[in-house]
Amino acid sequence: MIDTPNVDWFALSPSLTTLGAAAICLLSGAFVPRWILRPFAAFFCALGFIGGGVFALLLYIETPHGSLEVADAIFRDRYAAFTQILVMGAGLLTVGVAYSSRMREDHIGEFYALLATGGAGMAFFVQSANLMTLFLSLEWFSVCLYILCAIETDLEGSLEAGLKYLIIGGMGSAVLLFGSALIYGATGELGYGAIADATRSQDLTGDPILLVGLAMLLAGLAFKSSAAPFHMWTPDVYEGAPTPVTGFMAAATKTVALVLMYRVLTVAFPEEKDVWTIAVATLAVISLAWGNIAALIQSNIKRLLAYSSISHAGFMLIAVSSANALGVRALLYYLIPYAAISIGAFAVVVARERELGEAVTLDNLAGFGWERPLLGFAMATFMLGFAGFPLTGGFMGKFLVFSSASEAGWNWLVIVGVLATLVSLYYYLAVIRSMYMRPAAELGFAPVGGSPPREIMLSSAAFIAMVVNVGSFFAVQPLVDFARSAAETLPL
Amino acid sequence: MTDWLATILIFLPLAGAVLIWVLPVGRLAGPIALLFALAEIGFWIDALGEMNFDKPGPMPNFDQRWSWFSDLGVSYHVGFYGYSFWLAGLAVVVMAAAIAYGFWVGRERPSAYFGLMLFLTSAAVGSFASEDLLLFYVFFEAMMIPLYVLIGVWGGPGRLGATIKFVIYTMAGSLLMLASVIVFGLSAGSFDLVTTPTSDNTWVFLGFLVAFAIKAPLFPLHGWLPDAYRESSPEVAAVLSGLISKAAVFGFIRICLLKFPGPFDDWRNVVLALAAIGLVYGSLLAFRAPDFRGVIAYSSLAQMGLITIGIFSVSTAGISGAVLQSVNHGLISASLFLLAGTIERRTSTGSFERLGGMARGRPVLATMLMITGIIALAVPGSSAFAGEFLILLGVFGTGWGWAVAGATGIVLAAMYMLRLISAVLHREPGPAVHDAALDLRPAELGIVLPLVGCLLALSAWPAAISGNAITTSVTPTPLRLLNPARPNDQLPEGRMDLGSTGLNR
Fold it and tell me: Is B69 helix (H, G, I), strand (E, B) or coil?
């Protein structure tokens, strides 16, 4: 007889709620009449994300001190709860963005079911406390994303994106799994804390097998957070996937991968800190350089945003590499405006795509800002936020990230970040330039059809993203307080 | 109420901008913006009445401080010292004139346009009022957003190239400044400009110096200047050269001088040399420029060089003169750019080859241009003369060579200004000047006349600014530190509060 562990259902509630919503969405595809299917599935998916977010918030409030639950397989702490709130928020906005997408009728139920399941997997992922749950939940949400990328089966690009993501993502997972095996081989432990204890007690610091395992684990997580040089899939997948899904991946996948990376590195490998800080800093520099320089020559907005997301992985890795208390706060704060901006920016791309019926480029964005004032203005704030201009949360995020690096004594990393920001201005401002400074008439370009469709859900999602982006600038103190108590879990 | 004046001055225009953007005001955007700009002037005059230029202690007037982000010691801290108050006054006057001009000309998409102009006013006043380093950076950067859009949307045919150049240059400087802000703030444990101690870190100092040198601009960092000034609409060019460049003056005094006295002294001669080169070089370019705006643009380069010389003379006379000259130059170049705009509207060119003889039959235009030009070339008795005299006096103690360079620049100023006046007003009528081209309309006169009136008032009483520019803010210690030979003899009587500094702990 195997002892069943004591299950803390409350700790699992964010994942479970969202999973429940996913089940309803999936069944609705079979049992709900067609004419009401779309609002029905979207409503329950949204409800699942809201419920998950509420439970995550309750977890945050009720868990001032972190603990290990369910046979030490998951963490119940504010660090995970904070991230879960972000993931749920991102999922909720994605429901709004995706609502009037041109999906085939028979895929609506599956789409929302997969979205909710992916969200649940991410919520579980950030709670994982050993390498087994880490890998399981990573695959859990990755599989959902593979299918979501390919769900628009009548689009060639969507299938291609799904396949590419599957192959390269599978590769990343394999590397991560191999790394986990090596770490287990070296230490004989799976739990993060136990790995650290074993490293100390068996004096394994600098052990080659452990280091190779650590490197492979890091590489696997870098795949997921699309940090260069493990970013090759990003532009193609972001371009090919249905745009709302792209937004969700850019916001949520990156969030959980980076948050978990910080946890694993600091909890399981405090003894190897000298090694991984340098490794992460190297990843950051490569991501910043590659992402920004490659973005300069993009004309397709989705590809441009893909490279921009690579460069933002670089900025956030600066916070990881600084490995101090301020760095955790900086990362967690940075993710708030970043997630909102990512979804918002892709939402605007969705709106333009629907209007034109073709891929959005810098050229056919011309005049958009004047035609659709709300979305145009929102997009302008998103670009300024990405670029880190004041009055947006992006600025405060960068300020905190650079501060953490400076506090860690890595002023050269601040300089690299500053130079990368300078380069990035060119392409972020290029978007604003095409929206506002090149009237459509000047290019002899006319949008098809009459007035653009009114999409209340999408516009509200973009509006909320804009409010978060600007609001997080002014409300930096409460948000950082929020992040601070979340960050106290980590041994820094 | 009095305590709130700095905050009101910062946020009143922003409130106007939000009002214009959110409400469907349509064509009423211009009048509303003008109303807010005039109210802003009203509040500034009110503040002038309340301002205590001899306020003892380190705290500025209208001091307000709320913690914004306590982890790193960032706060919303605003207030005015003498020099920053005069620069803010320049800001509200120049912005009001620019908004009035934009309204008179009738810009397309008025709500976007006037909202951005008000937003810019807020950012400019805010950067002069900031007493927190990060807050200053926020306002300093926030000026970029409206400027970028104002040039890029309402500018001339070459506007896209001009905006890219402008943004890349200024952002290169200000992002390096961000690195400096972070390093300075973290090592001091606070970003508050009043309470933080001074620093000796040369690299951090250079980050600030370069950012302000680009903004000013100083030779050889002026590459963005001609394009931006030529491609902007006239009122935006007026704001750029008259007002935005003065953020550099504030930065040089408030941050470079007061926070980095050691590195400031080390790099003084380098900056003085660059400023002197810029002064002479800019003046020569202005003398050779083929068009109206070219002359003003390069004369701005020259004038900013002169102002920088005044600041880096590190003497009370020099800095007071620099502040006075900042206000003078702001008013002069704003009125010149607006006059250039009115001339371009009549002739659709600013090229001297196609202009000329405009004085005949257009007495008002000729008078305005003449008065501004005469003041600009620093004829004795004018406020510009007072400013330049003080700067030369201040720098003479540092080294007579700098004074010679400064004097050369002043001679050259006479040459290019007279060339400008004669090329536009005198000679034979140019091919672009039709007899039907009107004199200044009453509304246009109403826009330029207040600027010229301010200049005339300052000519009558330049000491209003120069005597009230630096008091408690520029502490005597750095001045003495840098000029050990001449301790107090240069300080205006009764102006320096020697005991209560608190700034150098």
Answer: strand
Q: Is there a domain that residue B426 lies in?
A: yes
Render pLDDT for B298-342 as a digit per residue (tens, 0 to 9). Answer: 999 999 999 999 999 888 888 999 999 999 999 999 999 999 999
Question: What tens digit of pLDDT does each residue of A358-400 get?
Answer: 888 888 888 888 888 899 999 999 999 999 998 999 999 999 9
C-alpha–C-alpha distance, residues A56 and A68, integer Å: 16
Query: pLDDT tier at B468 (50, 70, 90 boundaries)?
Result: confident
pTM reported for the whole predicted model: 0.92
Residues of A in contact with B153 (CB under 8 A): 436-437
Percent of chain A with pLDDT over 90: 67
A142 is written with which tokens? 């990755």
Region B46-53 average pLDDT: 88
Sequence letter at residue B313: S
- Helices A393-407 and A325-356: angle between axes, nearest 10 degrees: 150
Domain membership flag for residue B502:
no
A362 touches chain B (CB under 8 A): no
Domain locations along chain A: 9-487
DSSP state of B430: P
Interchain proximity A406–B160, CB inside 8 Å:
no
Q: Which residues of A touch B109 (CB under 8 A)?
A: 370
> Percent helix, strand, coil in chain B (nearest 5)?
70, 5, 25
Under 8 Å between Cβ of B350 and B397 = no
Evaluate whether residue B302 is within a structural domain. Answer: yes
CA–CA–CA angle A444, A445, A449 (5° rounding) = 135
- Tally of domains in chain B: 1
Q: Which residue of A has its CA nearest to B152?
A: A437
Q: Is the peptide bond before B197 cis (omega within 30 degrees of 0)?
A: no
Q: Nearest CB to B186: which of A407, A419, A425?
A: A407
DSSP-based helix, strand, coil % in chain A, nearest 5? 80, 0, 20
Q: Which residues of A touch B143 (CB under 8 A)?
A: none
**DSSP 8-class letter at B246:** H
Q: Which is more confident, B435 or B7?
A: B7
Instruction: Using an 8 Å CB-CB cutoff, list chain B residues near A437.
Output: 149, 152-153, 159-160, 163
A139/B235 Cα distance (integer angstroms): 59
**Does B494 reside within a domain?**
no
Local structure of A369: helix, strand or coil: helix
**B186 contacts in chain A (CB < 8 Å):** 403, 406-407
Q: What pLDDT, in 10s, does the model give residues B214-249?
A: 998 898 888 888 888 988 999 999 999 999 999 999
Chain A closest CA to B422's CA: distance in Å?
Answer: 37
Q: Which secondary-structure segment (H or E) carries B186?
A: helix B159-188
Residue pLDDT, tens place only, B277-298: 999 999 999 999 999 999 999 9
Interface check A484 vs B, CB under 8 A: yes
Reduced to 3 states (helix: H, G, I; strand: E, B; else coil), residue A300 is strand
Q: Which of B72, B160, B176 minimises the CB distance to A437?
A: B160
Asked whether the beta carbons of B211 and B176 are under 8 A apart, the reply is: yes
In which region does residue A109 sit, left (phi positive, over 0), alpha (psi from -120 to 50) or beta (all else)? Answer: alpha
Question: pLDDT (tens digit, 9 = 90+) per residue, B358-381?
Answer: 888 889 999 999 999 999 988 888
- How far is residue A200's CA from residue A212's CA, in Å, rounded to a whole number? 17
CA B108 to chain A, closest CA, distance in angstroms equals 12
Provide the residue range defining the domain that includes B230.
Answer: 2-482
Considering only the beta carbons, identify the residue of B67, B163, B179 that sits closest to A402.
B179
Q: For residue B190, which residues of chain A lie inside 8 Å, CB to CB?
A: none
Q: Do A406 and B186 lie within an 8 Å CB cutoff? A: yes
For B141-175, the pLDDT digits (tens) are 999 999 999 999 888 888 888 898 898 899 998 88
The answer to whether A418 contacts B179, with C-beta atoms less than 8 Å apart, is yes
